[in-house]
Design goal:
The protein has 57 residues and is mostly helical. Helices cover 75% and strands 0% of the residues. Helix 1 packs antiparallel against helix 2 (33-54). The longest helix has 22 residues, at 33-54. The radius of gyration is 13 Å and the shape is elongated. The mean pLDDT is 90.
Length: 57
């Protein structure tokens, strides 16, 4: 990510990330919470990248 997200991009990304992480936390029993954290980080980066592509400035 080269530039900051504007407000609509940040809100959209937050909604998508929260939805994905809530769904996966209910479906997957994480044995070690570090795996959940790594998964959340990867999902966040992917969603931020896609958000910048979908909602342009």
């Amino acid at each position: 990510m080269k530039n900051k997200l504007n407000l609509p991009q940040a809100l959209f990304a937050s909604f998508i990330i929260a939805t994905i992480l809530t769904f996966t936390n209910h479906m997957i029993a994480w044995e070690n919470k570090i795996y959940a954290g790594i998964f959340a980080f990867i999902v966040s980066l992917a969603v931020f990248y896609l958000t910048q592509k979908v909602i342009k400035d």
